[in-house]
Specification:
It comes from Operophtera brumata. With about 300 residues, this protein is an alpha/beta fold. It is built from ten helices and eight strands. The strands form two sheets. It has a six-stranded mixed sheet with strand order 3-2-1-4-5-8, sandwiched between helices. The protein has a two-stranded antiparallel sheet with strand order 6-7.
Length: about 300
């Protein structure tokens, strides 16, 4: 397969979380950051490559949940006169078509959140993105990087960040694998949605520093408890911390902030300082966006049935 030429980082802010909205979640803000493979490869550790950017708010034509409004700062009043997704689609499509092919979307937890919601919006609007558009989930890529580091640690004990024997586990361990989008085709329970959306909602308190650090900072692996065991966290903020140091005091959560943070981590994950190769792993693990399954909107009847087993 031909190497990816353009990496298109995408992040969405939404009206809420799918399990709380019966899969009727809509986009309120979208950011696209495009960077060429060459520019990412040539960027120094702690630097950002030149980018092309498209960022805008959308009118979701539905009420934004109070939790989402509180976390993102975006209310229905802010998007009252914003275009709808259907009205803005031509701009998005033109932006993508102008990029050097092959083009690959990169989103953190994209397989189970961003791509499914984006495709659902396209289905609602009866529009289609380019059929050759690729996508990859950065969460899965960072898991692969950590798994490789963990394997190497058996031969070397003097390398930092390589000591955790459970580095290949995340909050999505029962739902998503390293190698594919394993969102269940059937029987997605409220608890499944809860687990996925807790990870998605954890992104809400992220924002990259205005002054990006230029020096690598070695940090101990951040872990979370799951089933009585310590597991490495793959929240975007934790990945950023492992590469660059603390993210204390960063409370704003906007689509552009998250895209910049992810791009910063991508640069770090293919630099000489880390000996990782994020871009090569993207080549090996990308798939067509159209192979992703759109979020399935629930009908009123299905919503009532779903509500019989409430989460809260």
């Amino acid at each position: 397969m031909e190497q990816i030429k353009t990496f298109l980082i995408i992040d969405l802010e939404t009206t809420g979380l799918p399990h709380k909205e019966y899969n009727r979640t809509k986009i309120t803000e979208m950011c696209l950051l495009a960077a060429s493979r060459k520019d990412i490869r040539n960027a120094a550790f702690g630097e950002l490559p030149p980018i092309c950017k498209l960022s805008f708010m959308l009118n979701p034509e539905k009420t934004i949940t109070p939790d989402s409004a509180r976390i993102t700062g975006i209310t229905n009043e802010h998007v009252k006169y914003a275009p709808t997704f259907k009205e803005k689609f031509h701009t998005v499509n033109s932006f993508i078509k102008d990029l050097k092919k092959p083009v690959c979307f990169v989103a953190h937890n994209g397989n189970t959140f961003d791509y499914r919601i984006l495709l659902a919006e396209c289905a609602d609007a009866k529009v289609m993105l380019p059929d050759d558009l690729l996508c990859v989930d950065s969460l899965a890529i960072f898991r692969k990087i950590s798994k490789a580091k963990n394997n190497k640690s058996s031969d070397s004990v003097d390398k930092p960040m390589n000591t955790d024997k459970s580095m290949n586990s995340t909050f999505l361990s029962d739902i998503m694998t390293d190698d594919e989008d394993a969102w269940p085709e059937m029987n997605v329970t409220p608890e499944n949605f809860q687990e996925i959306d807790e990870l998605c909602s954890s992104f809400y308190n992220l924002s990259p520093s205005q002054n990006m650090p230029r020096k690598k900072v070695n940090k101990s692996i951040t872990k979370v408890k799951s089933s009585g065991k310590l597991r490495e966290s793959f929240k975007l903020t934790e990945i950023y911390t492992r590469y660059f140091g603390g993210t204390e005091g960063k409370t704003a959560h906007r689509a552009e902030d998250d895209c910049l943070m992810l791009l910063q981590c991508m640069v770090a994950a293919q630099s000489k300082e880390t000996s990782d190769d994020f871009l090569l792993l993207c080549d090996q693990n990308c798939k067509l966006l159209l192979d992703c399954k759109p979020l399935e909107r629930k009908t009123n009847l299905e919503a009532k049935r779903y509500n019989k087993n409430p989460l809260h």
